[in-house]
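EI: anyone free to look at a 250-residue chain?
SC: sure, send it
EI:
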Amino acid sequence: MSRRSGILEFAVLGLLRESPMHGYELRKRLNTSLGIFRAFSYGTLYPCLKTLVANGWLIEEPGSAPDEALAATLAGRRAKIVYRLTAEGKEHFEELLSQTGPDAWEDEHFAARFAFFGQTEREVRMRVLEGRRSRLEERLEKMSASLARTRERLDDYTLELQRHGMESVEREVRWLNELIESERAGRDQRRPGPDSPAPERDSATGSTSSGTANSTTTGDTDGLPRPRGSSGGSPPEAPGRPDPSVDTTP
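SC: here you go
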């Protein structure tokens, strides 16, 4: 299986975990929610769906009401098929979510993994974020060394392109630092120390309060905490966007 087909299968399973969909709706969600799939076609999606069905991770169901299905048959049109995640498919997706190896840090795979961070355990999110940051720091070091070697041989426009690439990587590293800091802050707030005051019970409602500020997140598998100073917008640079080529001529 190619890396890109593996990313597509992961994304399809993740979207279908939210709700069953037919092919058109699924392709639309892949295009709008996961920008890395903007340039793929039904000729790519349907073989992937067939493979997932054959593996027992999806099942196909009629997607229309009986009268609509009959109308489609009489009109010579094929009734829409809805794809639903099976219990085995859910288990397989959760196994994929728990993986934190180097593949999870690469450009396209990281973008897909990040899109499903709301379904990912906090500790797994931390390992993926830290791995991605480490990978980008290595890339930035190589880019800087290459630029230092070749600066004198580059024209102004090529030099500016090199600088733009480095600035893009630097911005993503800063973004990752903010996310990692937010994850750590959320985790620390959920783990009171031995000297923390005991929760106080409200005599009127019977509810308890810890007397501390609200946590950045509400649970280990809820939405990703927002970076400090963020208003909920997109990251400075899409993590799946490839960097400009770097001249590595010695």
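EI: DSSP finds eight helices and five strands in the chain.
SC: 👍
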